[in-house]
Amino acid sequence: MRSGVFEVDGAGLYYEVRGTGPALLMISGAGGDAGYYDGVAEILSDAFMVISYDRRGNSRSSGRSPAPMELAVQAADARALIDGLAGGRALVFGNSGGAIIGLMLTALHPEVMAGLIAHEPPAANVLPDGAPGRGFFAELAALYEQGGAPAAGRRFAETTRGEGTYRWPADLWKRFLGNQDHLFGTEWPGFAGFRPDEAALKSVPFPVVLGAGAEDRGTYYARPSIEIARRIGVPWVEFPGIHMEFLRDPDRFAAAVRVLATQMHSRDGHVPELWQGTAQ
């Protein structure tokens, strides 16, 4: 693994690169930390050049600001990383808020995309009025206003299936706690207001796949993936496990990503050079 800091407009983004082969950029959700994907990235590095990063203002990246952050800025950061580290084109995987950023990146900067896997984007605005979870972002914003990050963070964990049943790496947990004010105070409005650009997503020339975990059926953060896939006419797939299965069981989650990513890369008949070696 090699790491560094990539300079973008107004921030330095901490990144990690593992392996060689087709580029796979992995965008994290709440907390914005590359460490969510350490296990999965290591497993997939035998077939892909896996790029993970701390999103702007999170963990080891700079660029924190008290002003609300627009999702277009997050998308521009991801595009800059693809240009600078992946030669201008990458398959993108995003989980949760990272899936929302992936959808925004796809709509705004399709020229750098080889494909998108959007895992459980909590795009509550695509749910029907009155649906459970439609008011999730407003509820947590109010909790943050009243009780700060601890109150909002506790409620966030309560709404996410599987949390509390496994242990986070200690360093990741420490960094996450330091990111909560940035999440709820700066990033939250952008995620709360997100509505997918359906026309743009329908028009892209590369594969887009939505998906959710088998243990998350019916949740406010799984249901939008089904609705978005229906609206833009793309495949929906079931992943193993929970919202953050990549932390609970990285081997299991990486196996699912490997199959899907390989199919997306080779769908036009192109087999990457890495996979063309002669068997010994």
Automatic annotation (TrEMBL):
The keyword Hydrolase applies. One of its GO terms (molecular function) is hydrolase activity. It holds the Pfam family Abhydrolase_1. The lineage of its organism: Bacteria, Bacillati, Actinomycetota, Actinomycetes, Kitasatosporales. Keywords: Hydrolase. This is Alpha/beta hydrolase. InterPro entries: AB_hydrolase, AB_hydrolase_1, AB_hydrolase_fold. Residues 22-184 form the AB hydrolase-1 domain. Gene3D superfamilies: alpha/beta hydrolase. The keyword Hydrolase applies.
